[in-house]
Amino acid sequence: MADDTTAPRTVLVTGASTFLGGYLVARLAANPAIERVLAVDSRVPRKDLIRRMGRAEFLRLDIRRPTIAKAIATYDVDTVVHAATSIMDTAPHSAAIKEFNVVGAMQVCAAAQRSPSVKRLILRSTAMVYGASAHDPSHFDEGTPARREPKRGYGRDLLDIEGYARGLARRRTDMDVTIVRAQAILGPRISTRMSSYLSLPIVPTVIGYQPRLQFLHEEDALAAMEHVVLGSRPGTFNIAGEGVMTLTQAIRRIGHLELPVPSGLLAPITGVLQDLKAAKLRSSQTEFLTYGRVLDTTRMRAELGFAPRYTTTETLDDFVARGGVTPIIGAQTWRAVERRVVAAAHQLQ
């Protein structure tokens, strides 16, 4: 196990063109305690993101190729952050994306295993690995197996990728491997399938279900990854904002209208209401919006020593206030309706 008092010297971050990967690079590059920060991606980040990266060095290479091992060896990397999985925030899942995810993770883990300089590997995973079903527990802790394990999509990819990371930890006992399972990320700058879905003026929901949701603010997602990089806490950790709300509560808080539909029509009707392009709903997202998913974050606070700044409610409010979401029904209107409903209920008693 690596010495948790030793600050990283040379950090390599994959997925530098994504929001999470790119802005994490910017945070790390601003830290003078880190000697060198390497930003890796096959795509060149946006110009504004490149500027934010400051002194970080950008390496344009494909993580599916052996060149990733050469880069790790050449720069004597001691900390590898595999954030290329952040592509799932916006890109629709496909055979090409699956190859990128799985083969890329295999190459990164193999390169880290062969390099004697690498002492830490941090994997950005998500709560998708738990799946979503009617038989789920009220809260998923890190040791809770999925009641209905994802068979396809990003959830399946991440289960496989996490397996590679844990295998690496077994083979390299001198290396710290940390898996960060982030809850659904929202914020004014990041674009995700959830943010696209909630931005619809009329939001389709599955009739007869009230999924319980948690959100993680984009700044807290970045802060959690930075926290793990700067400290050495091996293991798997759920990351989520405090508090829970139902999907209906979220829609009303945003000021949009709910349209209950049969489960099989959720994805197609959502597509009709707005062309979500790269953020189209898939079956795993439909299951999540039917049954919900709530994480137990006890280990995040007690063992990792991290506490998000934003609660679930505050995350949603900031997404509305600064993310360009326009309410079509104000909060005062909803409160007036609720008061009338409560008054009518009292009269019936």
Automatic annotation (TrEMBL):
**Natural source organism:** Gordonia soli NBRC 108243
What positions does the domain NAD-dependent epimerase/dehydratase occupy?
Answer: 11-240
**InterPro entries, per the entry:** Epimerase_deHydtase, Lipid_A_modif_metabolic_enz, NAD(P)-bd_dom_sf
Fetch the Pfam families from UniProt. Epimerase
What domain of life? Bacteria
Provide the protein name. Answer: Putative nucleotide-sugar epimerase
* Phylogenetic classification of the source organism: Bacteria, Bacillati, Actinomycetota, Actinomycetes, Mycobacteriales
